[in-house]
Predict the 3D structure of the following.
Amino acid sequence: MVMLLTDEQNMLRDAARGFLQASAPIDQLRRLRDEASSDGYDRDTWKAMTEMGWAGVLIPEDHGGVAMGHVAAGVIAEEMGRTLTASPFLSTAVMGAVAVTSYGSTGQREQWLSKIADGTVNVAVAIDENRSHSPALVSTTVQPSDRGFRISGSKSFVADGHVADQILVSARSSGGAQDENGISLFLVPRDCAGLTIERQTMVDSRNSATVQFDRVEVDADALVGEAGAGYAALEHVLDAGRACLAAEMLGSAEECLAQTIDYLTTRRQFDRPIGSFQALQHRAAHLYAEIEIGRSAVMRALQALDAVSEDRQLIVSVAKSKVGRVAQLATQEAIQMHGGIGMTDEFNIGFFLKRVRVAEALYGDANFHADKFARIRNY
């Protein structure tokens, strides 16, 4: 398998890099944080992204998308990681789009895909119910009702939950709390009676929410996929998100290295650039090598998703685990090589440190995916 970008993907990367550096630099995230933005992202920037087709990168052309695939989505996510761009891209254009495209009914695809592609609808994925990621741990219940279904329970750490128009939620109709059987997925409108969304601002200044379902009634056509057999669909949706998160962290790691090398070549000590000291050169070289290994893992994961490979779960877990560790190493080394000034708000490195901490934990940290890899391989 050739692990290189195509000409089209290279053009997308260059266009994304130019746009994000000009229209959504790190200063935008700083401004959103300082102003305590009610949305948590810049709507004009997101509108411009949708006009460039980014929101429809995984949506078929006959539903208004551009159908460029997971590698292209990863290219966009990587460039977003360089500038720490806050947007609903991951939750809506990646996870929401995969859920509806792959598992939605004909009616759901007709109703929602074009709206996701043009940016008029945001989707949030409500999965986790406690502090650690465990998609099979579902205590939220669903029962038949006269209208269709009744959902009760609570979800935490719902990315972009407070700005979502539709909530993709997992709920259990049968089985124990850790049983993969008996789980169903539903698209729930945010204005349903009994649905409460409480925003939580994370340490990385991004959006998250706690979503409460108090006997929420939804129509029968809110079901996504097959009733009681939604876990495989859920894992597919999560893997799409995990691979793009890995790509985003890769971009953040690359930018940390770039900013650190720039600092090493300009900061002088003992009448010479500190980058001339061999110990710092070794640390920078080691980080570069780790980033390149991470790049290979991310590309392989995105290609596996595009190819619908049978071992895509394993490959995605490798990428999320490896790049999570690499990105943490990159932020730690950047802080160390900048010295104490690296932790000040004047420098951007601290923003990368905070974002990587959250992204590494979101949808499974390195330990979660190492364990998942071992279970898949029957170690």
